[in-house]
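Table S2 (text version). Query chain:
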Amino acid sequence: MKLLGLHHVSAFTASAAKNFEFYTEVLGMRLVKKTVNQDNIRVYHLFYADEIGTAGTELTFFEIPNAGQNRRGNNSISSLSLRVPNDKALTYWKNRFEELNVKHEDITEQAGHQILPFEDFEGQRFYLISDEHDQGVRGGKPWDKSPVPAEYGIIGLGPIKLTVPVAEHTGLILEKVMGFRKVGSYPATVTGQPDIVIYETAEGGNGAQVHLEERNDLDPERLGRGGVHHVAFRVTDEEELRQWVERIRSLQIGNSGFVDRFYFRSLYFREPNGILFELATDGPGFATDEDPEHLGEALALPPFLENRREDIEAHLKPLNTTK
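Corresponding structure-token output:
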């Protein structure tokens, strides 16, 4: 039982249309699945990834049209990152962000890697991270129809940052329950706060890291548009996921039990500071119900929702995702 790295992250947006435009036209990612939130079928769930939706490259969004602005704070997934092939790619992206008026900072260094912090149109915090010196979990393959040249394209999820009031509690879950290991640290961005600790799993590297920040000067986050709902970690297959279900239950950690999401199987639980974790299988994948050449173009529904298609479509604002 070993987690293989990051699987996906899921965030909130107030506009599926603007979200689609930003992540495909600006960031050049591929929409690999247009479906609905299985726990709230009145809203879209959009999945962006590499060319085939490889586990570890997935960035997903729930559309909540009336969501207020995310209020940043503690007990949160406070920052996401996206991997690019090398340092040269960051220079390309800095120029691209300037041309397209994307809010960004300068290229800087973090724990031995070059990074480029930026925000999306709703203020969600990201940074691009260079894989130039990375030797861990492999990235994906950029979509060949992307407006971004393949040599500079986004190749997967990079480290995610958790901000919590008591880092020790989250660290215990990561190490003693989930099998992560401490591999380093770097200075906090706020004077007087502890160093940010780097944890990684499996082969390690940018695609398998959690950065844990302790802050004693923040109120809890109020989740809204531009905020992150949960982070998922990779599990090999369903058999192993069921072993994780039993492990989490045996430790008396509140959890969802086994959940069939059709495109993958899942288990959800919260760590002690309240952040929602998911364990998700690498497959079956997004080509299960669509031709790989046409992923994300039509509204896809898992079999257990197909008999409600007419009602679901009637309550969704049409979203043209055909390229």
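Notes on Table S2: The mean pLDDT is 97. The longest strand covers residues 40-49.
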